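User: quick one, sequence for these tokens?
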């Protein structure tokens, strides 16, 4: 299952939102962030061998837009 950051933005904690907007170029989220997001939205995510998760282009664009508007 893809992360769907855009559809779950309001369910993410402020610290998770901050991490995402401070790292808008991340195409693959590290396992610690993936675990945090899965816990906050109460849904599993597809993970690679290292526990990371690939973001869709739509989520990357959404995060980049959020980052531009928070600075």
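Assistant:
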């Amino acid at each position: 299952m893809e992360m769907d950051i855009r559809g779950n933005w309001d369910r993410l904690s402020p610290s998770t939102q901050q991490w995402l907007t401070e790292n808008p170029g991340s195409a693959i989220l590290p396992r610690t962030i993936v675990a945090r997001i899965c816990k906050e939205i109460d849904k599993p995510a597809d993970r690679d061998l290292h526990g990371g998760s690939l973001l869709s282009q739509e989520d990357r664009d959404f995060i980049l837009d959020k980052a531009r508007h928070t600075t």
